[in-house]
Amino acid sequence: MISFENERFHLRNDFFSYVMEIARGKYLLHRYWGRPLKEFRDSAPLQRVDRAFSGQLADFENERTYSLDVLPQEYPVRGRTDYRIPAYAVELENGTNISELNYVSYKIFDIKPTLKGLPASFGDSQTLEIELQDACGNFKVFLSYTVFADSPILARSVKFINTSSKKIKICNAASAAIDFPDNDFDIINLYGGHAAERTIQRRKVSRGIFEISSTRGASSHQHSPFIALARPTADEFQGEVYAASLIYSGSFAIKVEAEQFGTTRFVIGLNPDVFSWTLEPGEEFQTPEVALNFSAHGLNSLSQGYHKFYREHLMRGKFKDKIRPILVNNWEATYFDFNEEKILALADCAKDMGLELLVLDDGWFVNTAKLAHGLNGLADEVHKRGLKFGLWVEPEMTNFDSELYRAHPDWILHVPDYKPSFGRHQLVLDLSRADVCDYILNAMRKVFSCAQIDYIKWDMNRHMTEAFSAKLPPARQMETQHRYMLGLYAIMEKLTAEFPDILFESCSGGGGRFDAGILYYMPQTWTSDNTDAICRLSIQTGTGLAFPIISQGAHVSVTPNHQVGRVTPMQMRTFVAMAGTFGYELDITKMSDVEKADVKIYVELYKEIRPTIQLGKFTRLLTGGNEYAWQFADGKRVVVMYFKILAQPAEPIRILRLAELDADKLYTLKKYLPPKKLGVDGGEQKIFFEEKSFYGDELMYSGIAVEKIETDFAAYMWVFEVQ
Ligand code: DGJ
User: Taking the CB of the first residue and of the last residue of the chain, which one, N or C, has fewer CB atoms within 10 A?
Assistant: First the structure.
């Protein structure tokens, strides 16, 4: 998959080609990324144009057409004739951050090297490592590129080594930079806030620099470490899209520059505003990995590429490709107002409805009297009812009024002399310190073994402020945030290895740390604290752009909804939640008998279709506005969901054209669930069986017509079996 000929590296599989070139024996230039090419023979050679104010390096003083400012580069620096956004900056002892990277050599590995202390992709692949050296010999940079035969993902990362006899300071170290020869792109990114995560934004690339980033010490609700550059005509089903998703859970920055000559550069990696790293002679620094993705066939194929890659080459543990239990979580059911009796009442009801896992959320540790027989007693009782038992923890935080803080006031992130800031009355423990990490590890070991615990929800409810560590010297304070992430990853690595039978779900006030880095340790994440089905349509659509369905926690909650006060029918709430790792988060004991009977039907239905939903191929048939349609398909079954938010007068009949079926196979409609009218939600749910078979071509090209039912918040489902 990797060749080197005529000074060019050609990385190629069935999905893409990626070409780099060594120019003038030392400059590593980017030449091509896109559809796979048989060979790269340079049909569009780099134009040599004399550009005013684009300077020349000393070796080319008399060659006014040779400037790094106009050449497409692989890992650019600022200050050596290139004025565009740089990929890195290394400050030397003399105070300069000017350097020049020259090509030295390359190696190809058939086994992917691991990234020390960081989450990274794995599996059958080939890795190209290119060694570059600073022209004055101060440091080396190793660029790593991994190609997987079965995936459109190109995994990149970078390693720095200090080869000088003095300290050097890395002030910026992106995981990847890409130069495109044009700027005919739309930027697609995922922005949001708490309870409004990963909203899709699409806008034209325009001259200047566009940045999305986090300085919060978490990938954040506000911006996801993901970006796509799509051709303006690209849509869900066609057109070229390039994307990058950072395999990292801390502060990050992504910048896209459309510069003076109409080219585009994007750079993705650690956020240089809150990062630097000092290397002693001989020491090395590893950046996080980034998953670059190319789709020649639109956004659905881009997402499918990420879903498959993360499931097969990033997620680990015994649950990664196991269907996930249907849970009931007591958070929105009781908040902090619970006791053993209430929890067991939920468990009884859950058992009766066919649910499989009971999760005890926040508050259990505050007042142990809440649980008359302790955690162990509760877990036993839950197990006796045939359910699994899950527990919420928030190991990264403490409070001012705690024994831990009184004993170790230096164990929190804080700047001496300044009072620490609070978030939800909490202080952030300093995970950049080994002693703090050891404390958390041992505390969690105790909790995880104090009862039979089958599931852990790992929460983190505030972002970092005063990212200063009492343990680090002044010159290393800007390392605190990244060291925290390394500490967190080390803890997660150990705990997930020591407790392989626990299913871990990560959470940060909902989806504040929903990123590929966390997926390496925990195969599912609570998508958002917003459980309103209508808001979830957009949140889950945005999340699914980059992350697999099986990784998205989604629960049915009560109406009026606790976040937005909206009243929606049970079927709408249920189907939206079914498009993920499904569960309930309301006081199920208070449901009417009719609702309970409906839930039983839905739960039975979900159990049947969940392999297809969680492990099948996901396609967005319709996205946004008033309507969404989602398709899940595997070799056995096709599940189609259609959602219409508001009923509209005089609307055309909606035809849904299914996607990527086998034209020659018959698909038998086994189940059809139309919406019930709002206001008659109490009426018994019926699943209509209308056994009709259609060839795949008809379903794809003629489509299915959505029955017109005048009601707001309408949710439909069709289940086809493949013959
Ligand atoms: C935030 C989570 O997202 C919620 O589900 C819940 O666990 C609360 N924290 C508990 O404090």
Answer: C
Q: Is 150 a catalytic residue?
A: no
Structure letter (DSSP) for residue 688: B
Q: What is the pLDDT of residue 677?
A: 58
According to the 3-state scheme, what is the secondary structure of 268-335? Answer: EEECHHHCCEEECCCCEEECCEEEEEEECEHHHHHHHHHHHHHHHHCCCCCCCCCCCCCEEECHHHHC
Q: Does ligand 1 come within 6 angstroms of the Cβ of 510? A: yes
Residue 282: pLDDT band (50, 70, 90) is: very high
Q: Is the pTM of this model over 0.85?
A: yes
The 10 Å CB-count burial string (b at 16+, else e) for 186-196 is bbbbbbbebbb
Distance CA 539, CA 542 (A): 5
Amino acid found at 236: E
For residue 142, pLDDT over 90 is answered with yes
**Domains, the chain:** 2-313 (2.70.98.60), 627-722 (2.60.40.1180)
Say if ligand 1 is within 6 A of residue 521 CB. Answer: no
pLDDT of res. 686: 65
Distance 531 CA to ligand 1 centre (A): 12
Quote the ligand 1 centre to 528 CA distance (angstroms).
Answer: 9
Q: Considering only CA atoms, give the Rg of the chain.
A: 27
Residue 459 a catalytic site member:
yes
Largest CA distance in the chain: 86
CA distance 482 to 488: 10
SS3 breakdown of the chain: % helix, strand, coil, rounded to 5? 25, 30, 45
- Atom 1 (ligand 1): residue with closest C-alpha? 509
- For residue 104 the two structure tokens come to 């030295």
Question: Per residue in 249-280, pLDDT tens?
Answer: 999 999 999 999 999 999 999 999 999 999 99
For residue 153, what are the contacts with CB-CB under 8 A and spacing of at least 6?
A: 121, 291, 292, 293, 305, 306, 309, 313
Q: Is 192 in the pocket of ligand 1 (CB under 6 A)?
A: no
- Whether ligand 1 lies within 6 angstroms of the CB of 672 is answered as no
- In percent, the amount of the chain with pLDDT more than 70 equals 98
Choosing from 361, 366, 556 the residue with most ligand 1 atoms within 8 A of its CB, the one to mutate for a pocket test is: 361
Q: Beta partners for 686?
A: none
Cis peptide bond upstream of 560, omega within 30: yes
Cβ–ligand 1 contact at 712 (below 6 Å): no
By DSSP bridging, strand 581-584 and strand 552-556 are parallel
The residue nearest atom 2 of ligand 1, judged by CA position, is: 509
Distance of CA 627 to the CA centre of its chain: 24
pLDDT value of residue 682: 53
Per the residue annotation, which of 82, 134, 515, 529 is the catalytic one? 529
722 vs 220: CA distance, rounded Å: 41
Which of 31, 56, 35 has the alpha carbon at shortest distance from 45? 31
Which is the catalytic residue, given 69, 361, 430, 459? Answer: 459
**Phi and psi at residue 371, in whole multiples of 5°?**
-110, 95
Query: DSSP of 451-478, one letter per residue?
Result: TT--EEEE---S---S---TTS-GGGGG
Phi, psi of 584 (to 5 degrees): -120, 145
CB 387 within 8 A of CB 357: yes
456/391 Cα distance (integer angstroms): 5
pLDDT score of 286 more than 90: yes
Q: Is the CB of 529 under 6 A from ligand 1?
A: yes
Cβ of 332 less than 6 Å from ligand 1: no
Q: Is 397 in the pocket of ligand 1 (CB under 6 A)?
A: no
- What is the distance in A from the centroid of ligand 1 to the CA of 93? 46
Q: Whose CA is nearest to atom 10 of ligand 1?
A: 362
Q: What is the residue whose two structure tokens read 């590129």? A: 145
